[in-house]
Amino acid sequence: MMAFRHVAIIGLGLIGSSVARATRRALPEVRITGHDADAGVRETAARIGLADAICETAGEAVRGADLVMLCVPVGAMAAAAGGIADDLAADVVITDVGGSKESVLAALRGVLPDAVIVPGHPVAGTEYSGPEAGFATLFRGRWCILTPEEASDPAPVARLRAFWEALGANVEIMTPRHHDLVLAVTSHVPHLIAYSIVGTASDLEEVTQSEVIKFSAGGFRDFTRIAASDPTMWRDVFLNNREAVLEILQRLTEDVTMLQRAIRWGDGDTLFDLFTRTRAIRRSIIAQGQDDAAADFGRSHGETGNAASDSMLTR
Amino acid sequence: MMAFRHVAIIGLGLIGSSVARATRRALPEVRITGHDADAGVRETAARIGLADAICETAGEAVRGADLVMLCVPVGAMAAAAGGIADDLAADVVITDVGGSKESVLAALRGVLPDAVIVPGHPVAGTEYSGPEAGFATLFRGRWCILTPEEASDPAPVARLRAFWEALGANVEIMTPRHHDLVLAVTSHVPHLIAYSIVGTASDLEEVTQSEVIKFSAGGFRDFTRIAASDPTMWRDVFLNNREAVLEILQRLTEDVTMLQRAIRWGDGDTLFDLFTRTRAIRRSIIAQGQDDAAADFGRSHGETGNAASDSMLTR
């Protein structure tokens, strides 16, 4: 199977810059060109040597590329595709890394009706943004979901799968619709709730913001990590995966209401049963390598905290 | 000020065993006795040498102690106090580590009307339970809240403050009522939502549990850590801090409903404004040493993941 010779990355934030770094490390023979709409980001990317060339225009960046990866917020996909339409090589495969897939596929198809498009979504990230936040191992052991159209030629899908696997990811293929529902559960609604709870806490009159920060080790701080993620990216995800997010949110609201009722009526058994069931999920996530077993996320507790946490790894 | 000579720890789980370890390290001259209602826990505690003596009965453990710390779930406080009432020394200070304070104070007062009681709550923990999960540095840099009664003698409060400070904690004093509201925001409601969202995700028909686990790196896994916390302890917290939890939950529900509406109506500005505001809270938590700045909680991303994360520490 033909590998890609030249990858063009449009959008050089956390994900785009991680793709660049991972590609350089895993596939050093591949030419990497990049572009970002923000001049400051281009400057930083050039300074840190993120790609073989950081181009002033997206069109310039994609010229001659056989893989174009759009790493922009999902609300900017159509514009990004429009900016490269005239400069694409005949044999190019277009992909993206957007967090919603039905809307992105529709947006890209609208602008590039005849292109070979294989939408993708690497399920990985951190709470930091920008070209300096990326790192080569971000995708290692994580899953990348590809959502080709039903009538899609299998060859470009296979090439893109091989590319992501070279970067260390596991690849799964599903329909855009199923992707959007799965991600609503595993990512979008958790982010929305995290944003919401951090907002609620900072709006209280009786509890000061300083108290919320001081006593955040009681659990709150775990929510603040994902509530610090890139605002533009996440606004776009919610606006573009509306249906699935609203469906999952509705279910969650019902379940929270049930717990609220259990608390009000002193129904300890309902609480205990749920709290017992949820431990098993955590164990499976650790067993499958999707999280670390270190207690408290391996946070340092003074100078010997990590040593103490290390002893948890075996349980 | 007189330090404590002999600390009796009733309940040898994560917190009790961490108090034992921290005391032995910071105050090696203090005698430590311990008891747990569970024979298996007593056996483990004796085997790992958690205290100078692990006693068969709580009464035996508290005999001669000048500090008794009740480290049992808040629903078991009254029974624990009842089990030691006849064996307490005249000069003893009674404290606890429970996550709700109004109900615990009432429970302890009911059983020990004339004792010197200074309720406490170290805001620290991990998702692991049991005597082997504890470690000496758990409280270092974390806050411990003391909630003495208004008419309380200041001397025992000062001694208990000094004790917690010796264990590495910062101490804050507030009313039981205010504690319960602050913790409802910073700990109880976050835990309830985490439990709930993990439950909701595992109940879906269209998304399999295996998919939820696979793609948990999208954000979901951050919730599973605290949703793996001790079920008995947390059931009791919710049943005993009912009012404050229901109040905060009501506010959160309103705020989530507003976001739900913003998504339904495509109101990107409301989403963007909230998502921007919440980043500042995360920064403050890191600045005040209540969380680590390492990207993605410093999780390992392959062999160089931690090195990459380390570079985040300076931003």
From TrEMBL, chains A, B:
Keyword annotations of the record:
Oxidoreductase
A Pfam family assignment: PDH_C
The protein here is known as: Prephenate/arogenate dehydrogenase family protein
Organism annotation: Sphingomonas aurea
Composition bias (Polar residues) maps to: 306-315
Quote the Gene3D superfamilies the UniProt record gives: 6-phosphogluconate dehydrogenase C-terminal like domain, NAD(P)-binding Rossmann-like Domain
> Which InterPro entries does this one have?
6-PGluconate_DH-like_C_sf, NAD(P)-bd_dom_sf, PDH_C, PDH_N, Preph/Arog_dehydrog, Prephen_DH
Query: Which segments constitute the Prephenate/arogenate dehydrogenase domain?
Result: 5-293
